[in-house]
Structures are given as C-alpha cells and as structure tokens.
Amino acid sequence: MANVQKGLEGVLAAETKVSSIIDSQLTYAGYDIDDLANNAEFEEIIFLLWHYRLPNAEELKTLKEKLLSYMELNPRVYSHFKEYATDNVHPMTALRTSVSYIAHFDPKAEAEDDTETLERGIRIQAKIASLVTAFARVREGKDPVKPNKDLNYAGNFLYMLRGELPTDIEVEAFNKALVLHADHEFNASTFTARCAVSSLSDMYSGIVAAVGSLKGPLHGGANERVMSMLAEVKSEDEVDEYIDNKIKNKEKIMGFGHRVYKDGDPRAKFLKEMSRKITNETGQSQLFDISVKIADKMKKEKGLIANVDFFSATVYHSLNIEHDLFTPIFAVSRTSGWIAHILEQYEDNRIMRPRAHYVGEVNRTYVPIEER
C-alpha cells in the first residue's frame, strides 16, 4: 500500500528563508511575529521578506517612493473594470482577471535579470492595492481615487477605497492586519505560486495562480464567512443556541483551528485586541462581545481556538469595508509573501512534479464503439 500524504500534510517540499512555523510560533526571516506586529510598518515587512533583513532608513524611503509611484493603473484597466464590475462578480474573480490584465501594460513583464524581476515585484505589490480599491469603487459607480503621497501603504489602501483620509487608529489596525497576513510558510496559495513559477513561468502567472488558490473558503475566504456568521447572531444571548445547532448539524464553523497550530494561532491575539479597540471606537462593541463569546464557546465545546481569520473579520467590518473585500485584502497583504517565495523559487529552481498513486482499473482493452 502506497504511503499517500493527503493534502501533502507533513511533506517537506522545499527549503525557505522567508518564514517559519516552529512549535506554534511564526517568524518572518527569523523575526518573531510578536515583535514585528508591535513595531513594523508593512513596507518594512515587504523588504524583510524579499531580502531576509530589515531595511535601513534610506532603503525604506526608496521602497515607499517606488510603491507610491507604481500605484496608479493604466486608464484602460479602469475601463476594463466597467465591463464587469457588478455585485454579481466576486472581487476575487475580478482580482484574478485584473492581475493577469495589468501584465499587458508592463513592458518588462518578461525581463529575466534579477534587478528587473525585483522591480516587477514592487510594481505588482503597488498595483494590487489599486486593483482591489478601484474595482470596489467602480462597481459602486464611483471614480477611482489616486494615492496620497502623505500616506503609507496601509493608509493609502483605506484612502483609495473610501475617498477620505483614515484615522490614526484605522491606519494602525489595517497596517497590523497587513503585517500579520504577509506570509505563512507553505500555505496553499504560496505553494501554488511556487508550483506555477517552477516551470520558469513569469511572476504575474505565479500571482494569478496564487489568487485563484486563495479564493477558496478553506483558505482566504474564511474571514468573509466569519462575518456572515456574525451577521446571523444578533446578541450574546443567541450564541449558545446558535453554536449548539451548528455543532449538532455538523456544519463547519469558520475561523477556528489551524492545521499547523496546536496551541493556538499566534497572530490571533493581535487582531483580537485591534477588534476590541476599533469596534469600541466605531460604536460596534457588541460585535466584539459576540465574537468573544463565540470564541469561548468553541474552545469549551470543541477545543478549537480562534485563528487569525476570526477577529480580522470584525476589524475589517469596523473599517467600513464590504465583506466580500475581506479575501482580496488578504491577497493584498499575502502578495508580499508570494513574491518572496517566487523570488526564492527562481533562485534555486526545480520544477514541481510529484507522483500520484494510481487506484483505478487496470488491464482494460479498447472495445469498438458499435460493440459497447
């Protein structure tokens, strides 16, 4: 009997310096996620993941300037959104299409030298924020908003999405969410990106493939499902009955447990605290209270601990972000990790080509169609 590892669980597929999960602790290039979540800007995380070190002041300034300069999209991309930007098109579907589309306007999309590859990564990281925000505005009949030179990456995303300057606590919350979602070792979408470029395909192809993988509810789509659940629970008093019914009917409850964390997701505590702060500031503290009661109930009844998706849902909701944009926001952050892994795959490449254990019928003989 062949030893098949379903879901590739426990299989070591490659070496990486980008991030690690050891004894339920997440690090980026050796830096503890607790340290980074408390101190780092998202732009610093981008540099760290791509270079395995934190930037100095001049390097950070240069990266920020380049990201800002690349954020605007070709006018034809905005027109492109108008062709299909409706409530019937999920933003992840639009993102998958638009990432592929912007490659047509990159004259150096196929350049292979290291400098151009890195510069292409900066362009993609800059533009993916604009793709998500522009789509969101176009489908509402609004004009896209150009980036503000006085804002950082997190602040610009909120500004381009809503057309108004975000508050300090909103920027803090969103920056922290971006930092916490930036990379997570060989998750499904990251592995998909590495598989795609292992054939020496281009970076845009790798990102498109990763977006497609992230779209699934078992990966990036979980926080959107969390918010759908919270919308069904009107008060703390309804939590026990609601969760009991879910468990009784064997329905999946999103936002709990994680395959690689047995002692709890180390990222969750930061978003739980941000959820408390921002729901309180926006007058939606009941959402946080319901969330905490659900989390306590799930830990008691099922032994499952809330993961990063659970509290990120209320953070984004309190930032007045449409629920179907939660997963595209995940993609905006995780693009930094995807690009890091793509760069790493290029550096030490071998095409991904696993084997399968065949379990179908054997020794069959072709029969002419008139005899079937």
UniProtKB/TrEMBL annotation:
Give UniProt keywords alphabetically.
Transferase, Tricarboxylic acid cycle
Location of the active site: 258, 309
Could you cite one Gene Ontology molecular function of this protein? citrate synthase activity
Which CDD domains does the entry mention?
BSuCS-II_like
Where does the source fall among the domains of life? Bacteria
| Transferase as UniProt keyword | yes
- Which Pfam families does the UniProt record give? Citrate_synt (PF00285)
Organism of origin: Staphylococcus kloosii
Q: Name one GO cellular component term.
A: cytosol
The protein depicted here goes by the name: Citrate synthase
**Gene Ontology biological-process entries:** carbohydrate metabolic process; tricarboxylic acid cycle
Catalysis: reaction(s): oxaloacetate + acetyl-CoA + H2O = citrate + CoA + H(+)
Pathway as given in its UniProt record = Carbohydrate metabolism; tricarboxylic acid cycle; isocitrate from oxaloacetate: step 1/2
Q: Where are the transmembrane segments?
A: none
**Entry similarity comment:** Belongs to the citrate synthase family.
